[in-house]
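[audit] Reproducing an earlier prediction to check determinism. Same input, same settings, fresh worker. If the tokens differ from the archived copy the diff job will pick it up downstream; this log only records the rerun itself.
[audit] input (59 residues):
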Amino acid sequence: MASTGAVPIGNLIAGALASKIGSSNTVILGASICIAGSIFFMQQISTFRVRSGSFESMC
């Protein structure tokens, strides 16, 4: 539900950005932000596992 509600806002931001820097540059910027976010998450996942315990202990 949260992602469905955020889509119109993201589209508005992407459209405004595309009119300023071009559509291809907007797609490149969006992809770069996604890659940076995934790298950050990959670095933090071990911290999440240590804090919450292992998955096997939850079952």
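[audit] rerun output stored. Observation attached for the diff report: Helices lie at 2-21, 23-52, 55-58.
[audit] end
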